[in-house]
UniProtKB/TrEMBL annotation:
Native species: Paenibacillus lacisoli
Similarity section: Belongs to the nitrite and sulfite reductase 4Fe-4S domain family.
Gene3D superfamilies, per database record: 3.30.390.30, BFD-like [2Fe-2S]-binding domain (1.10.10.1100), FAD/NAD(P)-binding domain (3.50.50.60), Sulfite Reductase Hemoprotein, domain 1 (3.30.413.10), Sulfite Reductase Hemoprotein,Domain 2 (3.90.480.10)
PROSITE patterns linked to this entry: NIR_SIR (PS00365)
Residues annotated as domain Nitrite/sulphite reductase 4Fe-4S: 628-766
Name by which UniProt lists this protein: Nitrite reductase large subunit NirB
Presence of keyword Iron: yes
Domain of life: Bacteria
Pfam families: Fer2_BFD (PF04324), NIR_SIR (PF01077), NIR_SIR_ferr (PF03460), Pyr_redox_2 (PF07992), Rubredoxin_C (PF18267)
Residues of the Nitrite/Sulfite reductase ferredoxin-like domain: 558-620
Pathway in which the depicted protein is active: Nitrogen metabolism; nitrate reduction (assimilation)
Domain FAD/NAD(P)-binding stretches: 5-281
InterPro entries: BFD-like_2Fe2S-bd_dom, BFD-like_2Fe2S-bd_dom_sf, FAD/NAD-bd_sf, FAD/NAD-binding_dom, FAD/NAD-linked_Rdtase_dimer_sf, NasD-like, NiRdtase/SiRdtase_haem-b_fer, Nit/Sulf_reduc_fer-like_dom_sf
Length: 809
């Protein structure tokens, strides 16, 4: 069979989604050619905001790599812009001389950012935020310049501004209206948003109309009507988009605001289709991915000759992707004639909710501060069902069990398999079910890895969780199994019983809670020992024999049975005298290897067990705890002490934190880092608790990991003073101590419990102080283990006869 020729113009998210569907439906029907102006394979444009804000890497956002095109036998013309269409002869022409014939043509040329035609708009340093190139330009600019102005306080402008703040720039957002995100929020929600963003360091100039851009070759400032000016080294225009219709218009295809299409995504010219941001369907051009994905599914069916009801338009929802701020908006968000409005506002906890109701149906919603119900409300809006009698419940919060599994009449169950659950990534219910039922995914994390659902804005997470609970059946139950083979009790049940019955020893816990084994095992014994120490810091006597090998000997066992010694060097700052002493000890004990660790400390390797106390004595330095489930190191950059970019004293902050938390027992090892500016030389965003200085304050990040599964941190909050850093760090670490499973790193814990729940737990000042006082009580009873062993002959004796210690994982 002769294949038909299909040409796609526009290598973006909409066009490629349609092709992906088509290749599934009719893999051999077409010989496919794609033209794309950008020099990259199809990438996730929405993730550019995360790239700018440090939450993702450019390499992570590619959706279809070059192998995908090759594997599907697609002729790809990257860096080619199609400049002419001949719809009579059915040919497309690119700027680089390629000419390709088609039987069917898809236009998916997206949008162009709207650039205000201000005098001076052509100067260097005036850009949009649309592509990888724009993103790279902002990153590069932040290395040499300090001030940025973003024109437009909509979704894109605020996400750009957050990214620029992260890059260390001083950012002003200029907005033409009196309040931000006027296309998605009402004034009350917008004001709350503004104050949150101000707390993060953003400055706002509202009700300003930009008049001209100042500077010679490069932008130097911005003038507003009325004469007011501001200095700036960069201007990002984010004032909306306009469908890219030039090519279609030039070919005589009907164009209004966008390329006009019918319900089959067909233009007025036979064989020519359009979808995505460039298209206009029933008078609407969409600027979000969910509708584009829906259009893609319809177009694919149409091209494959499969039955389809056609595309009938979309109701949209948005979620601002700015770390630390939760905003959701869907449908009609401003009261209109014939609508009823219900509002809830709690200024203290910063929560605002508004429902717009039309004839007993939910027409729209705005949520600020607590957006857990967003996905569910959106689904109710789309279904058009009556909410009579349930209005208050919907406003005040859907109980999580009702959100996930309610008896019988459950919306998640009723959803068809084609319905999209994750709008950002176009993941349908069917795909998630496949992941659960055929690929054995039993957690949201696994579903995310498998399908990308919940991987972008995170707004669909409650629904993904709900589907998991509904469809994983026994497998989901098995996730709740006991902490080890000796018991069926979970960590939470054990800790609860320890508290309730004031259980005080490992043996007692095993007896009272009916352990299946007499002595427990290498999993439960150290876990119980940790939980008891955490609950009763003053009364509980640590059980040395329940500790893992390294913690029993206060040194890391190596593969040849020798140990390593890492003395504490606060903040990684040492002195000539200290270095001399370490060198002398290394010589005296003929230490085979002296090496810097990844955490900026000195490691003396190859020490025999019997020499450990002698070396500790000779060093006369505190233990660096490089071996334990405890605070390891606080890595620092030089900060403003020497570095010309530094805005804060990173070294001082790091030393203070290391002195504050050394010797702390934690569920798993904990690493901190402090960077003196957003250049982040101390790599704080892959630490358990990372501190990054910004102008006038500190960003506090949590849950990072640079190990096997690299995870970048989530932004917890932004604070102004060093005391606040210590308060938040204390509260976070204590909350982690009290809630994580033994041996669970903060990265896994944050993923498991969700950033939102941690933020909520720490948001009250009183609660933070209570956590801080509990961590101080735990720290108060700790002593330096090396010193204790050196001074107590009984303990020291243990080291003389040690042999054949077992390495435990
Ligand atoms: C920073 C940012 C964050 C966003 N965040 C979100 C979000 O959180 N949620 C959401 O739903 N949406 C978000 N969006 C919007 C979303 O990314 C777009 O709606 C979506 O990418 C549009 O897809 P598209 O394929 O229609 O257009 P595009 O992605 O613009 O793709 C069109 C492609 O066609 C190419 N092209 C154009 N003309 C030609 C030609 N003549 N020849 C060859 N190639 C051509 C363009 O170079 C482009 O690569 C965001 C957008 C940005 C910029
Ligand atoms: N999280 C998300 O869903 C997300 C994130 C980024 C972008 N996007 C999408 O990308 C597209 C572009 O986003 P956008 O924010 O540029 O568009 P937008 O139209 O949503 O917002 C533009 C904002 O700029 C303001 N504005 C207009 N003229 C101005 C002027 N002269 N001076 C100052 N302000 C002015 C408008 O009042 C409006 O609030 C949209 O379709 C948006 O939905 C979505
Ligand atoms: S050393 Fe510290 S202060 Fe200097 S650029 Fe790096 S992160 Fe910024
Ligand atoms: S809806 Fe944004 S990640 Fe799923």
């Amino acid at each position: 069979m002769n294949k038909q020729k299909l040409v796609l113009v526009g290598n973006g998210m909409a066009g490629l989604r349609a092709l992906e569907h088509l290749l599934k439906l009719a893999p051999d029907q077409y010989e496919i050619t794609i033209f794309g102006s950008e020099p990259h394979p199809n990438y996730n444009r929405i993730m550019l905001s995360s790239v700018l804000a440090g939450g993702a890497d450019l390499n992570d956002i590619v959706l279809n790599d070059l192998d995908w095109y090759a594997g599907n036998h697609i002729q790809l013309h990257l860096g080619h812009t199609v400049t002419r269409l001949d719809t009579e002869r059915r040919k497309v022409y690119s700027d680089k001389g390629a000419v390709v014939e088609y039987d069917k043509l898809i236009l998916a040329t997206g949008s162009n950012p709207f650039m205000l035609p201000l005098p001076g708009a052509d100067k260097e340093g005036v850009i949009a935020f649309r592509s990888i190139q724009d993103c790279q330009m902002m990153m590069e600019t932040s290395r040499s310049y300090r001030k940025a102005a973003v024109i437009g306080g909509g979704l894109l402008g605020l996400e750009a501004a957050r990214g620029l703040l992260h890059l260390g720039m001083e950012v002003s957002v200029i907005h033409i209206h009196p309040y931000l995100m006027d296309r998605q929020l009402d004034e009350a929600a917008s004001r709350m948003l503004q104050s949150e963003l101000e707390a993060q360091g953003m400055k706002f100039l509202l009700s300003r109309s930009s008049e001209s851009i100042l500077g010679r070759k490069r932008v130097k400032g911005l003038r507003f009507s009325g004469g007011e000016t501001i200095d700036t080294d960069l201007i990002v225009m984010a004032v909306g988009i306009k469908p890219n219709t030039e090519l279609a218009r030039g070919a005589g295809i009907e164009v209004n605001r966008g390329i006009v299409v019918n319900d089959n995504m067909e233009t007025n010219i036979p064989g020519v289709y359009a979808l995505g941001e460039c298209a206009e369907h029933r008078g609407i051009s969409y600027g979000l991915v969910a509708p584009l994905y829906e259009q893609g599914a319809v177009l694919a069916k149409r091209l494959a000759g499969a039955p389809t009801d056609g595309y009938h338009g979309s109701v949209t929802s948005t979620k601002l992707k700015v770390s630390g701020v939760d905003v959701f908006s869907a449908g009609t968000f401003i009261e209109q004639e014939g609508t009823r409005v219900l509002k809830f506002q709690d200024e203290i906890s910063g929560v605002y909710k508004k429902l717009v109701i039309h004839e007993d149906r939910l027409a729209g919603a705005v949520l600020f501060g607590d957006i857990d119900d967003g996905a569910e409300l959106f689904s109710i809006i789309k279904s058009g069902e009556s909410i009579k009698g349930r209005e208050k419940e919907l406003l005040l919060g859907i109980p999580s069990d009702a959100r996930n599994i309610s008896s019988g009449n459950n919306r998640l169950m009723q959803m068809s398999n084609e319905e999209i659950v994750c709008g950002c990534n176009g993941v349908s219910k069917g795909t998630i079910l496949e992941a659960i039922q055929e690929k054995d995914c039993t957690s949201v994390g696994q579903i995310k890895a498998c399908t990308k659902a919940s991987a972008s804005c995170g707004g669909c997470k409650p629904q993904v969780e709900g589907l998991l609970q509904l469809y994983a059946g026994d497998k989901a139950v098995s996730a709740k199994e006991g902490i080890c083979g000796c018991t069926t009790l979970t960590r939470d049940e054990i800790v609860e019983e320890m508290k309730r019955m004031r259980l005080m020893s490992v043996k007692e816990v095993m007896n009272v809670l009916g352990w299946d084994t007499e002595e427990g095992c290498t999993k439960c014994r150290p876990a119980l020992n940790y939980y008891l120490g955490m609950l009763w810091p003053e009364e509980y006597v640590d059980e040395k024999e329940s500790r893992i090998t390294n913690e029993r000997f206060h040194a890391n066992i190596q593969k040849d049975g020798t140990y390593s010694v890492v003395p504490r060097i606060y903040g990684g700052v040492t002195s000539p005298a200290e270095l001399k002493k370490i060198a002398e000890v290394a010589e005296q004990f003929e230490v085979p290897l002296v090496k810097f660790t990844g955490g900026q400390r000195l490691d003396l390797l190859g020490i025999r067990k019997e020499n450990l106390p002698k070396i500790w004595e000779a060093l006369d330095m505190p233990s660096g705890h490089a071996y334990g489930k405890t605070l390891r190191t606080v890595k620092t950059c030089v900060g403003n002490t020497f570095c010309r970019f530094g805005t804060q004293d990173a070294i001082g902050m790091g030393i203070r934190l290391e002195k504050e938390f050394e010797r702390l027992n934690t569920p798993s090892k904990v690493k901190l880092a402090v960077s003196g500016c957003p250049r982040n030389c101390a790599e704080a965003t892959i630490k358990d608790f990372g501190i990054v200085a910004i102008d006038g304050g500190w960003e506090l990040h949590i849950g990072g990991n640079g190990g096997v599964h690299v995870r970048a941190t989530d932004l917890l909050c932004v604070v102004k003073t060093e005391d606040e850093v210590v308060e938040w760090a204390s509260a976070f670490l204590q909350y982690y101590r009290e809630h994580a499973n033994w041996n669970e790193r903060t990265s896994n814990w944050v993923e498991r419990v969700g950033l939102g729940s941690i933020k909520q737990a720490l948001e009250s000042h009183e609660e933070r102080l209570a956590l801080q006082s509990r961590i101080q009580a735990a720290l108060a009873v700790t002593t330096d283990p090396w010193k204790q062993i050196i001074e107590e002959p009984e303990l020291r004796k243990n080291f003389e006869s040690l042999s054949g210690a077992k390495v435990e994982q």
